[in-house]
Amino acid sequence: MEIRVNPTRMELNLLKKRLKMAERGHKLLKDKRDELIRQFLILVRKNKELREHVEKELSAAFARFLLARAVMSAENLEEALMYPTKKLSLEINKQNIMSVYAPKFSWVEEESGRGENSSIYPYGFVDTSAELDISIETLSGILPRLMELAEVEKAVQLLAEEIEKTRRRVNALEYILIPKLGDTIKYITMKLDENERGALTRLMKIKDIVRAKM
Amino acid sequence: MPVNDTIYAYAVGRIRALETRLLDRSRFERMIDSSSAEDALKVLAETDYSGAVSELSDFHNFESVLTAELKNSFDTLIRICPRPELIKILILRYDVHNLKVLFKAKYLGIKSDLFIPIGSLDLEKLAYSAAEDDYRDLPVKLRRAAEKISEDFLMNRDPQAIDLILDRVLYEQLIAVARENGSAFLEGMFIRQIDLTNLRSLIRIKRMGLDREFIKKVLLPQGTLPIDRLTANLDEPLESLVSSLMMSDYADLIEEGVREWLEKGTASRLEKLSDDYITAYLKQGKWMPFGFEPLVGYLWAKEIEIKNIRLVLVGKINRLPAEAIRERIRDVYI
């Protein structure tokens, strides 16, 4: 399984250097992997909590919305929601988690109305149902959480990818490159030793012959 | 102006015949108890809606059936009513809806297809006036409202104001036209609708935590419940609203509606009771041999019937429990 090399002292030195480097890289990557997994677990827990919360609220809001939909005609409902009072502008920045660049959202709510009483409800009260108020309110309240969830979920995805990559690298170093280098080094050492022994025996043999002739 | 009620003899005769074809309670019960939306539609297909239902390729598009049926009813009534201008009063609500859509579409810079094809105003003409900011062809009150909206929106850009201004002017116009035509019955209906809308708005605004300034813009002034008295309840607990209305016609309705609102946080009961209240009022006209009243009653009954069908179908499509649908079903007229 060794790497094909010339069994020379020069190569041996080179390989020893590579082995050292590989071992150092292996240790570093292992540390990185462990830290990534730690971060990952924190985020995953946060993600789970957020998701459960958001899903609960969302399903409540949708249930309300359904009721509003059931008592209002499609045209009325859509007219009511046609022109939203608030506009959201989203800005995406990067945040660095263990050199994984996860998105960081920041957003500004812009009021489209300049009236002092402009509310989150863009419709009148005559043809609309109170169920609509409640679902709009829930949805509007849930928005920050929803953004946070998106952020965390993306970070979790990116981290998982990075962990996978790092794990591959660690394994490649641990099970392939390092044993291979070790084997090759052993091979070269043995070859060199053998050569040395051969040279020694030859010398002794020659010495014997020379002595016999004298 | 006193009008001889016998001119309605033919129209009332037609209405009596049409009334028998309205969906009754047991039909709705069958729809509620059916296992799926398709089955509910099958029940519907046994009624007057059969033609439209059989043409429906996907039951999610049931709204088109309902709109078509409503338009059909209005068209029939305009045809048979000796004074079609009275029916046109009831159509005004849809004109106002179309105006709302028009204004919102205009300010958003989009084209919209949310118009209800029942309005008496020509949509193309409306679109033209909105584009040109020229509302000469609208009825006086609507024209003023339209001008007010154009002005207000430039200043505040608040889409809610569009709805608020138009809703207000709608009821002003309704009351005015009802009076003009000497129909105390219609006026009574609008006033009751105003009162009930005001009560609902009050409760909703209270929940939203908005202030008195705002509620003044929302409450409609022509009701029998004085606005001052209603506004005064904004800072009080809802129970005091109930007790202050103890002596009014709305005592039972508001008590039950508010109880449900406080206990379950849902206004469904109040909204249902409000509709039932109007139905009960209109039922007076049911036994009149001649007169305009049965016609109004029939149109209202049709609107409620369509509301109920929508409720059942939306509920069935989304697998709402039968109980949740049943408690929201409005009383039927017949």
Summarize the structure in words:
- The complex is a heterodimer of chains A (214) and B (334).
- Chain A is mainly α and 214 residues long.
- Helix content of chain A is 72%, strand content 11%.
- A two-stranded antiparallel sheet of chain A has the order 1-2.
- In chain A, strand 1 and strand 2 form a beta hairpin.
- With 334 residues, chain B is mainly α.
- Chain B contains 17 helices and no strands.
- In chain B, helix 6 packs antiparallel against helix 9.
- The longest helix of chain B is centred in the first third of the chain and has 25 residues.
- The two termini of chain B are 31 Å apart.
- The mean pLDDT of chain B is 86.
- Chains A and B meet through helix 1, helix 2 and helix 3 of A and helix 5, helix 6, helix 9, helix 10 and helix 11 of B.
In brief:
With 214 residues, chain A is mainly alpha-helical. In chain A, 72% of the residues lie in helices and 11% in strands.
Described by the principal axes of the CA atoms, the overall outline of chain B is: globular
What is the chain-wise order of helices and strands of chain B? HHHHHHHHHHHHHHHHH
Q: In terms of structural class, how would the helical and strand content of chain A be classed?
A: mainly alpha
Largest interface, with Cβ-Cβ < 8 Å?
A-B, 36 and 59 residues
Q: Tell me the Rg of chain A in angstroms.
A: 35 Å
SSE succession of chain A = HHEEH
Biggest sheet statistics of chain B: none
The CATH class assignment of the largest domain in chain B is Mainly Alpha
Secondary structure: number of strands of chain A: 2
Residues in β-strands, percent of chain B: under 5%
The oligomeric status of these chains comes to heterodimer
- Give the structural class of chain B: mainly alpha
Shape of chain A: rod-shaped
For the record, the count of structural domains of chain B works out to 3
Distance between the termini of chain B: 31 Å
Number of helices of chain B: 17
Give the domain tally of chain A.
Answer: 1
**How many strands in all of chain B?**
0
Please tell me the overall pLDDT of chain A: 88
Overall helicity of chain A? over 70%
Biggest sheet of chain A, in brief? Answer: 2 strands, antiparallel
